[in-house]
Amino acid sequence: MFAGWAKPGDVYRCSDNGCPCGWVYHYNPGEPKGMRHPSPLIQLTANSEDQVRNAYRPLVAMIRLGPLKRLLKVREGFIRILRPGINLDDDDLDLDRIDVVTASATSRLGNPISDAEQDEAGLYTKSNGMLDVADTQRRGAAGMGGRTHFWTNAYDPGENSYAQQQFESASKDVWIFYRNPDLNPDLRHKDGTPYSFNNRRERRKILEWVYAGSPWVPLDSVEAEAEALMEKDPAQAERFFGNRMVQGGGAWLEDGLWESCYAGQ
């Protein structure tokens, strides 16, 4: 949580919060300072159990293999958050915790929460019930001055997903980070048209730009997967690997066709 603006000499120490890792950060004057939330209630969210494991499984590994095990306890289906100096090792207490929420396990929805982490929000639609889940979490977070965060591959513009609704929202308190390859002039031809994902050479350049901030990703493997997926679902391959918002093969109209009918009127 925000803890005011730093003054000369202000320091953040993990040890002040019961963590033995030894990490210390010296604030620059004027920087925003952080403090531990007094009563964190966090929900890890996805459309299915398999999907939510993408976040939950690495978290469990980090807890068990590092200093976080002094602050977090893995339980059956949730993680207990411990407070320094206070024994919260009693599972009968419905206190600080990290819960898993899916479309089929929504019993904890409606609770006031401090944070919700929403995985693959481009798959949250009205038909699978996840729009209601995401909206409920936002209301729960608002009641505690909390936050919700979502991440996703490029969504299908024909599905009106939660990610699409947030991306198109005019709300001033929604922050979106999206690296659009079509806005990069280096990924366009001389006539201004964007590189084609169907062209192997041009696709490689798109992938190099999209994954530039992820040096651990093997581009050769990604390109092989993209090429294989192109054979049966080129739109999905372009969304998933090329980070482009293109409609799926079942779209009623091509993207932008309806709007173009109004051009010049």
Structure write-up:
This protein is an alpha/beta fold and 265 residues long. It contains 7 helices and 10 strands. It has helices at 49-65, 130-142, 162-167, 200-210, 219-230, 234-242, 257-260; strands at 2-5, 11-13, 24-26, 32-34, 41-45, 72-74, 78-81, 97-101, 115-119, 147-151. The strands form 3 sheets. It has a 6-stranded mixed sheet with strand order 6-7-8-5-9-10, sandwiched between helices. It has a two-stranded antiparallel sheet with strand order 1-4. A two-stranded antiparallel sheet has the order 2-3. A hairpin with a 3-residue loop joins strand 6 (72-74) and strand 7. The protein starts with a strand and ends in a 5-residue tail after the last helix. The model has no long low-confidence stretch (mean pLDDT 88).
